[in-house]
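User: Some background: our group keeps a shared notebook of sequences we're curious about, and every so often someone picks one and asks for a predicted structure to add to the entry. Today it's my turn. The entry only has the sequence so far, pasted here. Could you supply the structure so I can complete it?
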Amino acid sequence: MKVLNEGEVTLIDSMGNDLAVVQAARISNGAAMPDWRGAPDEKLIRFLAEHQHMTPFEHEVFKFYVRAPIFVVREWQRHRTFSYNERSARYKKLEPEYFYPLMVRVPDPNNKQSSIVKDDKQLAALLKGAFDGAYAAAWTEYERMLEAGVAREVARSVLPLGIYTEMIVTGNFRNWMHWWELRVQADAQYEIQQYALAVGELIESVMPISFKALAVMSKS
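Assistant: Of course. Here's the predicted structure to add to the notebook entry:
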């Protein structure tokens, strides 16, 4: 699934579904591993969410391939409940593929942690020129150092936070939903919001009932 200008989120693998939530919940009563029973199981999932019985939502796992600007990945990796492996610029030369803002944003006067969109052609031109200039200059120096024999782990230091990197990230459903809840909030940075929306759409395709149940609780 495409995100931003050069980004991507792909669901590589998953384990479990809505039935896995039901099975985990019913084992506490010594129940046989049930098949999906429709409405009664949907009701159970909603009950678990409403009453914060969360452990049954921890047995389902999702693994994603993510291509994102470094600044998005660093923000993402603040969530330490996931497992991460990221492409290393120590071992392989990066590609000159960069993030560009999709709109002009300025500080939100009512929220120091947020920004608002502004329709300003002059600022848009300034933004485009600044990004083009900074990216071109950084890449020129990066390549110049590599060609001169400087180690990749040193040369990479001049690259900007807007260059794209790649990672594999894995976590259980409960933790994904906690991350999703935080990152789709209106005051979350726009770029990571877009990744959260993509991840949510892919998870919902596998666990639609559980996703809806926890999403509803996050808004209540």
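Suggested note for the entry: The chain has a mean pLDDT of 93. The radius of gyration is 21 Å.
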